[in-house]
């Protein structure tokens, strides 16, 4: 997978994460109002965890591929690692 496709996937999966968070809130509200079941809430929570896992995985792939590219070009330095560490801890 190329670095550019990693960037696109990070953006797409970030939006998917936001959407599943919103969906979970809606299902929880529906449960409180009596229009949704506890199974619906659990399914929405499962979907959110799946979206979080996918987002984390693609972020990891992006970081790894960018480091590999810089290493292959002989351009990797300590500032790259510090920047990635800051990005991952957000």
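-> sequence recovered:
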């Amino acid at each position: 997978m190329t670095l550019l496709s990693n960037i696109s996937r990070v953006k797409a999966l970030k939006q998917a994460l936001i959407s599943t968070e919103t969906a979970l809130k809606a299902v929880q509200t529906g449960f409180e109002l009596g229009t949704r079941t506890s199974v619906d809430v659990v399914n929405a929570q499962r979907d959110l965890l799946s979206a979080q896992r996918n987002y984390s995985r693609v972020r990891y792939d992006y970081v790894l591929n960018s480091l590999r590219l810089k290493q292959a070009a002989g351009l990797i330095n300590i500032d790259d690692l510090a920047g990635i560490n800051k990005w991952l801890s957000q």
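The radius of gyration is 18 Å.
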